[in-house]
Automatic annotation (TrEMBL):
Its EC number is 2.6.1.59. This is dTDP-4-amino-4,6-dideoxygalactose transaminase. The keyword Cytoplasm does not apply. GO terms for molecular function: dTDP-4-amino-4,6-dideoxygalactose transaminase activity; pyridoxal phosphate binding. The active site is at 181 (proton acceptor). Catalyzes the synthesis of dTDP-4-amino-4,6-dideoxy-D-galactose (dTDP-Fuc4N) from dTDP-4-keto-6-deoxy-D-glucose (dTDP-D-Glc4O) and L-glutamate. It catalyses: dTDP-4-amino-4,6-dideoxy-alpha-D-galactose + 2-oxoglutarate = dTDP-4-dehydro-6-deoxy-alpha-D-glucose + L-glutamate. One of its GO terms (biological process) is enterobacterial common antigen biosynthetic process. Keywords: Aminotransferase, Pyridoxal phosphate, Transferase.
Length: 376
């Protein structure tokens, strides 16, 4: 079976994990944690990066940092993972879903302003497939209405908008290092990027269970104490050691994924030209990271037939999110603003193809041949 995904392995992970084990510092904020955080601060230009156990934890931190209260409203697309909404629902917010653009499957920036009310607290753009939302429009709207912008950049590590790294354009950015992402911390992991300097001190406190422990270890206070609400949002240094191996090879991983992505695109262009499928669209201002390669079939029946065809050839291809607004929890905790023109229909057409760092050229060609055979 050719899997849909396999976690990236570059070869130095075990060495670094053994080093972490020998250091006597396996819990959070050890040497490898500092290396990873400083690397991202320098590479992406964020004011402060804090590693977390997951992107879910990062989003939950963000909701606390912007003081989400019961009755607040948070705008986001419905076509996203449940964590994007859960983080704010946990603080009592109502989720206001906005339709997506059919080209990028990102939130339609032209529909956001109509969804803003006097209860709106934040906009949460989700950079689907590592392709940026229109951050110029979104940041202008946030400035106009006094709103926070929390970037769900779970899929966007090493992607950019007009040359600026995703996750660094909003007030807070959230990364994922889950095993399905381009870079992993050994299965799970995330990062919170604090781009508003006013939030840095509190972010450290919230992440350390509501204490000023980080200030204590830097010698800024003579004892640490409970200062705020918070939780255990530290990544273990053992995981950070695995992640450090990946970040050292980040450029190599990125180039390999882009090469595989381009192979699919070139091979499937004739099928797209015939009208059988739609290929991904990358706006000129976006530099993507080849997080995924998807195709859009004509309808859900066509997609189901192709999934079954590939499965017969021992190739695993999958569809993605069920739109949140159509789920029981989405109907309970949120509402859809305006008309759902594209969210449901586009989600039913989309199919993700195998794409991961260690995918061999032979296996990718097998996938391509099976696809071409189906469409012929």
């Amino acid at each position: 079976m050719i899997p849909f995904n396999a976690p990236p392995i570059v070869g130095t992970e075990l060495e670094y994990m053994q080093s972490a084990m020998g250091s006597g510092k396996l819990c959070g904020d050890g040497g490898f944690t500092r290396r990873c955080q400083q690397w991202m601060e320098h590479k992406f230009g964020s004011k402060k990066v804090l590693l977390t156990p997951s992107c879910t934890a990062s989003l939950e931190m963000a909701a606390i940092l912007i003081d989400i209260q019961p009755g607040d409203e948070v705008i986001m697309p419905s076509y996203t993972f449940v964590s994007t909404a859960n983080a704010f629902v946990l603080r009592g917010a109502t989720i206001v879903f906005v339709d997506i653009r059919p080209d990028t499957l990102n939130i339609d920036e032209t529909l956001i302003e109509a969804a803003i009310t006097d209860r709106t607290k934040a906009i949460v753009p989700v950079h689907y497939a590592g392709v940026s939302c229109d951050m110029d429009v979104i940041m202008a709207l946030a400035d106009k209405h006094g709103l926070f912008v929390i970037e769900d950049a779970a899929q966007g590590v090493m992607s950019s908008w007009k040359g600026k790294a995703l996750g660094t354009l909003g007030h807070i950015g959230c990364f994922s290092f889950h095993e399905t992402k381009n870079y992993t911390a050994g299965g799970e992991g995330g990062a919170t990027l604090i781009n508003d300097p006013r939030l840095i001190e509190r972010a450290e406190i919230v992440r350390e269970k509501g204490t000023n422990r980080s200030q204590f270890f830097r010698g800024q206070v003579d004892k640490y104490t409970w200062r705020d609400i918070g939780s255990s949002y530290l990544m273990a240094d053992l995981q950070a050691a695995y992640l450090w191996a990946q970040l050292e090879a980040a450029t190599r991983i990125n180039q390999q994924r882009l090469r595989l992505w381009q192979n699919y695109y070139a091979a499937l262009q004739p099928v797209a030209a015939s009208g059988r499928i739609t290929l991904p669209s990358i706006p000129p201002a976006c530099q993507h990271n080849a997080h995924m390669f998807y195709i859009k079939l004509r309808d859900v029946d066509d997609r189901t037939a192709l999934i079954d065809w590939l499965k017969e050839a021992e190739i695993l291809a999958v569809f993605h999110y069920i739109p949140l607004h159509s789920s029981p929890a989405g109907q309970r905790f949120g509402r859809f603003s305006g008309e759902d023109r594209y969210t449901q229909s586009e989600s039913e057409r989309l199919l993700r193809l195998p794409l991961f760092y260690n995918l061999s050229d032979n296996n990718q060609q097998t996938v391509i041949n099976s696809l071409l055979s189906f469409f012929s």
